[in-house]
Amino acid sequence: MTAFPTLAAGPDWGTVPDWLAAVGTLAAFAVALRLLAKELAARREYEEDRRTEQARLVSTWTTFPERDAQDSSLYWFYVVVKNASEVPVHNVSVVMEEPRSPYARATGSPDCRMQFFTVAPGENDRLAFRHPEHHAGPLTLTFTDAAGRRWTRYPDGRLVEPDRPRRRSRKDALNAWIAGEVDQLDY
Question: What dotted CATH number matches 55-160?
Fold first, then answer.
């Protein structure tokens, strides 16, 4: 009997089916993570829509100016605040910005600030004011919704909740997840 030479035993790299199964498992895990990320983003968007639902239905504008009968150098305007939601809004304040300002913040003078205490559901409230220019400046609207959240609507249409903390970065979210504090994150 002749002996066959034995090869030095090296590491066992497995078979092709084992490799294919491992690659398939990793691909399935990656797809599951991607679907989870999409679901979380959709839930976040839904929650944001639900949060801003009433605030999106509150708006303001000015009416066409009318010349003052006693003083022809002044014009009468009406500032109209519309609450198209089904619940009232409170502490409504409208500031008329300077016509040439970029209206990044409320810069109106005290006589260009109008205060409405409550605007009932489905109502339009209006206040009259006199202004020396034919064109009223852009309006910044600030109000409190029925849930007690304070909102600001800028003349360019942006709706901002100034008191809300900023959304955290992905790094902060990952660190909170590692520390087991995911439920304490604000989104």
Answer: 2.60.40
